[in-house]
Structure formats: C-alpha cells, structure tokens
Amino acid sequence: MSDTDTANAATEDHGLEPGQDNVLILGLDVHNPVFFVSAVTIVAFVIVTLIFKESAGAVLGGLRTWLTTTFDWLFMLSANIFVLFCLLLIVSPVGSVRIGGADAVPDYSYSGWFAMLFAAGMGIGLMFFGVLEPMFHFNNPPLGIAPPIVNGEFVAENVEAARQAGMAATIFHWGLHPWAIYAVVALSLALATYNKGLPLSMRSAFYPIFGERVRGWVGHVIDTMAVFATLFGLATSLGFGASQALAGLNELYGVPNTDTAKVVLIMLITGAALLSVVAGLDAGVKRLSEINMVLAVLLLAFVIALGPTLAIISGFFSNSWLYMKSLPVLSNWIGREDDAFMHGWTTFYWAWWISWSPFVGMFIARVSRGRTVREFIICVLIIPTLVSILWMTTFGGTALYQLLAEGYTGVQQTVVDYVPELSLFRMLAELPLASITSLIGIVLVIVFFVTSSDSGSLVIDTITAGGKIDAPVAQRVFWAIFEGLVAIVLLLGGGLAALQAGAIATGFPFALLLLLMVVATWLALRAEPRGAASAAA
Predict the structure, then answer these.
(1) Is residue 245 within 8 Å of 425, Cβ to Cβ?
(2) First to last CA, the chain
(3) E strand or H helix at 150, and its extent?
(4) Nearest-angstrom CA–CA distance, 22 and 34
(5) Over the stretch 365-408, which tens digit does the pLDDT of each residue have?
(6) Helices in 254-308 by DSSP H: which ranges?
(7) DSSP structural state of residue 30
(8) Residue 422 DSSP label
(9) Quick one: how far is CA 391 from the chain centroid?
(10) CB-based contacts of 26: which residues, under 8 Å, 6+ apart?
(11) What is the torsional sign of CA 154, 155, 160, 166?
C-alpha cells in the first residue's frame, strides 16, 4: 500500500487523516488546539522559571521526592507489565503480523535502523552513567547488601557481593524495562499509522479503545501530554549531556565549568541541531546516528582491547547471569529495605524512560515499517539489552577493575565528591591515549546531543502538526530552540536535580496512558491478519 493509499484508507475507514484539524497561521501548519496549548504553556514555564529561579528549584526538588515516594508502586508495576507484555508478543501468534501490511518491506537496513535506535534511545545516558552507575552502586549497594568500605577501609567479605550487586542494579536500569517501555509505544504507533492508516500522532494509538473520539478533546489531552513528556524528558538528557561535555572540556582544555559555560554550550549544540533539522531525517538524523554508532563502537573496542580484556569478556556472561538472577527481586517494590536506591534511582529511571517514550517510540515507529511484530520486539527489546550489558560491563567493569585490582581511586572519588559528569574521563585517564579517547567521548556526547534534539523536535512537531510528517521546517526549528531553552532553565533552576524532577513530573501521568496503550495494542494486533492469512491478504 502506498502512502497515498494509506491516507485514503484513513479517510474512508476512520474519518481521520493527518493535519485535518490544522490551521494555517504565519506560514505554519499546526494542529488546533494541541500546538497552541503546548507552545503557550512551555513558553510560560520558561519565563516563570527564569524569573523565580530559586523558588522553581525548591518546588521541582520537592515534587521529585513526593512523586518517587508516593507513586513508586505505579512506576514499578507499570514497567513490569510492559516487559511481560513484550515477552508475550514474541511467543504469541500475533508476532507474525507485519508492520505496514503483508507486502511491506523495511525502509532501512539493519545497520541504519540500529544506529537510529541507539542514538535516539539511550546515547547520552549510556555515556553519562556507563562508568558512574556501577561505581555508585558498588559504594552504596542496593537490596540491603553490606557496604564494601567501612571507615575508609575495604571489608574483604563484602567486596564481591557489592560488585555483583552494583553491576546487576546498573544493568537492571538499562536492560529490558526501558526498552519494553519504548517498544510498547513504538509498536502501538506503528500499527496505527502503517496498518490502520491513521495519522502519526500519539492519539492514534488509542483508536482501538476510543474510536473516533480521539479526534476530540480525548485526543487533544493525549497529544498535549505527549508533548510535555517528550520535551521535559529530552531536556533532562540534554542537561546531562551538556554537563558531561563541559566537564570533559574542563578536564582536557581547562574550559571553565560554570553555569554560563553550560548555557553557551547548550546554545551552540542547539544551533548544530537546527542545521540537522533543516537537513531532514535521512541527511540529518540518520547520518549523524551512523557517525555516532561508528565512534561508539570504536571507543567500546578500544576500552575492551586496552582495558582488562579478559575481565570484560568473562564479565559480560557473568553480569548477564547476575542480571537475570537479580531481576525478580530488583523488579519488586514490596518489603524493600533499600528505599533510597529504589526512589533515587529506579523510580526516577522508569519515569525518565516513560517521559522519553513518546519521543523515542514515535521515532522508532517511523523508521520500523516492514518488520514483523516478533522481529520488531526482538530487535527493540532483546538485542539492545545485550548491547547495554556489554557497554556497562566494559565501561563500569573497567572502572571497578581499576579500583579493586589496581588501586586506582579516580572514578570512585567522583562518586564521593558527587561530580558524576567526570566519571567517564577519570576512567579513560588510566588507559593509553587518554587525551584522544576523552576527546572522542566529548564528541560522542555532543553528537548524541544533536541527534536527540533533532529527532525530538521532529517528533514534537509531528504531534503538534496533527500527524503530518511534512510540516514546514520552521515548526521543527521552533521546537528545537525551546528544547534547548527548557534544558537551560532547568539547569539554572536547580541543576541536575531539577532536570530529574521535570522528567518525573511528566512521566507520572504518562505512565497511566502507557498502561492503557498496552490494551490498545493488543486489540489492534488481534484485529490484524497474520501468518498465512496475512500472506493471502
């Protein structure tokens, strides 16, 4: 079925087509009221936060604590449901359903597809937390495990248990759960758009439940919530990326690590993202994603080759087993004795991934036509989890090896001093060619920053343009600029804690929508022809 046929099918079967409720104003082609409500609210947020910076920081900090402690059960339960649902789809007969219909072929090769998945999904986060988190959880083990260091001295019998818990907890946050969140949103949107002929907008995913009511206020609320979640989730990642890139520049070249420098850096990288926006999806995001993939693989291979190679290779298998063994207890929230870990890390992560899910999910949906549901889930859930295990084992495992086998405390000190943005560079400093690899790390963070901003503005623009994917470029420019501005005001209004609070605040209500999306996805799949019936159709 061609794109034209798809659009016609949408009009005939559903009374819905991309941009049908749009208005033309000042050369823009925007959905009414989603664009105006979203834009006005976000502009107001930027202005108010800049005027009342100190008060905004206090409010955001308090909001984070309240949400993570009051609704921890919701985040934990939701993420578990998403994982179980995805695993069910792999073994279910509906796994043979093809996104786009029986005759659809993939738009991108596996290499291009994987590159865009990782660049959009986790790029900045892996760079920021890959070294930091295993070391942090080693110093402060979860699940009631005794700390390995008491009064500044190692306690031999506690060290190995703390190391294992640290690696398992880190992989838990970057494994099946976050990718299941992305997969649910992406699959639901892909089916709605390419199989049902509905506009590429968040409201379309709920058509199996609400029917044509998604065209009214129900759909307006869903799309507006998706814009807020995407913008704040993305701003959190951009803030992390800016902090880490500037810390690296400070380490290598003495660039001042000040708020003013962070603002300037965000502005410069937002400018680079604007150039990518103008270039378009294939020339912009796809090309940058492939560059990032090459650089990331080179850096990964370098650390494996010149770091503790045997420890990394054996660690990949042992850490995979540790992760699977620890998965049930880490996923449970009842009777936990490590509230600080669960609230400070796990519930924040699940809220962060959920707030990212409209952005990453819609982006993955857009580039995944032609894949079967089973192929899609395996590639979006299982393979990225294995890559995350390898990444965390390589970078975090190397830092732990440096501490335990070589006595190097540089990375551990970043945890003690709470300068998390320096962790990667302190680990690389102990390996050969540190100045070159650290520079590559900075470039990776910056290019991940650009691709995230570019693809994020593309997704937000699609939502606020009523599902149109060919809206005027000026609209994507508008959203790219405001992504940078939100990151700036959150940094100024409370630093990394404010960034995390923004992600959690928008992730909470969207978690409820994602649970409803699971139901909608199952209903949509049940209605699709599959297997031999699909081929006959």
Answers:
(1) no
(2) 12
(3) strand 149-150
(4) 10
(5) 888 999 999 999 998 888 889 989 999 999 999 999 999 999 99
(6) 259-279, 287-306
(7) E
(8) G
(9) 16
(10) none
(11) negative
CA distance 271 to 490: 19
Output the pTM of the full model.
Answer: 0.87
Residue entry with tokens 């060619």:
433
CATH class for the region spanning 3-527: mainly alpha
Nearest of 375, 371, 373, 379 to residue 105 by alpha carbon: 371
Q: How many other β-carbons are positioned within 10 Å of the β-carbon of residue 106?
A: 16
* Cα of 215 vs its chain's centroid, Å: 28
Q: Token digits for 379?
A: 């590639």
CB count within 10 Å of CB 294 equals 11
Three-state DSSP class for residue 372: strand
- For the chain, which residues score pLDDT lower than 50? 1-12, 532-537
Whether the bond into 18 is cis, omega within 30 of 0: no
Beta strand 153-154 pairing with 28-31:
unpaired
Q: What residue ranges do the domains of the chain occupy?
A: 3-527
CA-CA distances (angstroms) from residue 197 to 8, 132, 192?
8, 44, 6
Inter-CA distances, 463 with 228, 257, 288, 312, Å: 11, 36, 23, 42
Find the largest Cα–Cα distance for the chain: 72
